[in-house]
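Progress note, project year one: complex with flavin-adenine dinucleotide.
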Amino acid sequence: MFTIRELLQPDSTREAYQLLQTEAGARIIAGGLFLRLSDRLTIDKAIDISGLGLDRIEEMEDHFQIGAMVTLRDMETDKALNSYFSGVLGKSVSGILGVQFRNMASIGAPVAARYGFSDPITALLALDTSVELEDAGTVSLETYLSDRSIKKDLLKYILIKRDNSKAAWQVLRNSETDFALINAAVSRSGNEVKITVGARPKCAELATGAMEALASSEWNDSDLEKAADLAAEELSFGTNRLASAEYRKDMCRVLVLRALKEVRDAD
Ligand SMILES: Cc1cc2nc3c(=O)[nH]c(=O)nc-3n(C[C@H](O)[C@H](O)[C@H](O)COP(=O)(O)OP(=O)(O)OC[C@H]3O[C@@H](n4cnc5c(N)ncnc54)[C@H](O)[C@@H]3O)c2cc1C
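Model obtained:
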């Protein structure tokens, strides 16, 4: 549960960003669902970004533009978005708790906060995705996740290049509505492949060695098995209450192999 002392309702994303920089104790509030998990949190100044027009999924000339306040449920049900990439974005969020929850949780928050357990970040990283920040401008999602010098900014949009990639989603949970103990996504367009693994429990990362190995392969069963082994070897895994590092590594191999077979057999 949290207490808000003052609610600020800026008229523009610039004003929201400036409030974030200049007001002591200011914090952006989106769905408020993760914040409310905090034990007795007091937010001096909550910056409400719900009135800034960031709640739309738009099809631009060559990319999708997803506003930070778009809900997980919008992502799950948007027909245009899910007609691309084998519907991987909808699949990545459809297992997160219930519909009521997904109707409130925003997509901008987990990306902005770089949550390690996030399901949609793993799927987004497997696509050609960038984030548009109010101050830092547009940077690739891969850079945003790894460059911790980008701080305290307002995430406005998630931008996904539209292409004909086939994609696959895999996730393992101890029980249906629990956090993922590991998740994986694969996208493939021609010979180009992206493999991402998240909830390790660190944030999603690309398995670049496995991706390179596949670029010049025939994609037969043995090639895919080698790539899945490589992904499990090159990424690091940790232990927490959900699973041990060893179990995560084993399951990484299994999930990556399943996802690779799914994109191959989709052709
Ligand atoms: C019980 C529970 C279970 C969950 N299970 C899963 C799961 O299985 N898989 C999964 O992927 N996710 C899961 N989540 C996370 C959930 O999907 C959302 O990511 C989370 O609730 C944050 O969204 P929100 O809109 O509520 O953000 P808030 O709680 O409003 O904000 C979270 C943080 O992000 C910051 N923030 C919000 N928007 C922006 C922005 N535009 N720019 C910059 N900073 C911003 C806030 O200041 C705050 O620090 C779970 C969350 C809860 C509470």
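The chain has a mean pLDDT of 95.
Residues 28 and 65 are 21 Å apart (CA to CA).
No further modelling is planned for this target in the current period.
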